[in-house]
Amino acid sequence: MDDEELIHEIRKGSRAAMEVLVKRHYHSIFTYVYRKTGDYHTAYDLTQEVFVKMMKSLGSYRDNGKFSHWLLKIAVNHCMDYFRGREFKQQNRESELTEEALPASEHQNVWNIFYKRLQNDQVRQAVLRLPDQQRDAVILNYYNGLKIREVAELTGTNESTVKSRIRLGIAKLKEIIVGGERDETYRKPK
Predict the structure, then answer these.
(1) Region 16-23: what's the mean pLDDT?
(2) pLDDT tens across 93-107, in order?
């Protein structure tokens, strides 16, 4: 059953269809929110809220074959609301690297697991240091696999702006991870 068929069943009152739809899209929404917030527990809570909003807004969804984009747009807007909100401003931004957020393999030795966690943490911290608009563009394009056009639609910007944000975001990530952060206040005399 595709998403539109599930939505049709949900509108008729099917709880089973709702569970299938949520399970189908939960991982991608949680992954986006986690990469955006950098905190497992916050991402868990926000993801739950996204799906509550989805259920409340399902009546306004028009069956056009792009449910996943519609749902991701809800997640993008919900994260923007969260970062503008009082809870975020009051919250301590210390985030932990948790077991649930990291891939694990039974065949890796302890050193490889430690090294992979260290690398994941460095990349995650670097992504969190990007300006919001660059972070959104990079996460949506690279991690969620959206095309430039789709990122532009979700963020309400044009494609050239998205391309620029991705290019600048990747350059900034490279500076942070590979070469340290450049001091923007110091300029070499010409």
Answers:
(1) 93
(2) 333 334 444 444 444
Last residue of a domain, one of 57, 91, 125: 91
What the block records as the tokens of 47 is 């993801």
C-beta neighbour count of 31 within 10 angstroms? 16
Angle at 79 between CA 73 and CA 82, to 5 degrees: 140
Tell me how far apart the alpha carbons of residues 180 and 115 are, in angstroms, rounded to a whole number.
Answer: 19
Distance CA 125, CA 176 (A): 9
Q: At what angle do helices 3-11 and 67-84 cross, to 10 degrees?
A: 70
Spatial CA neighbour of 124 closest among 135, 115, 133, 134: 135
In a domain, 132, yes or no: yes
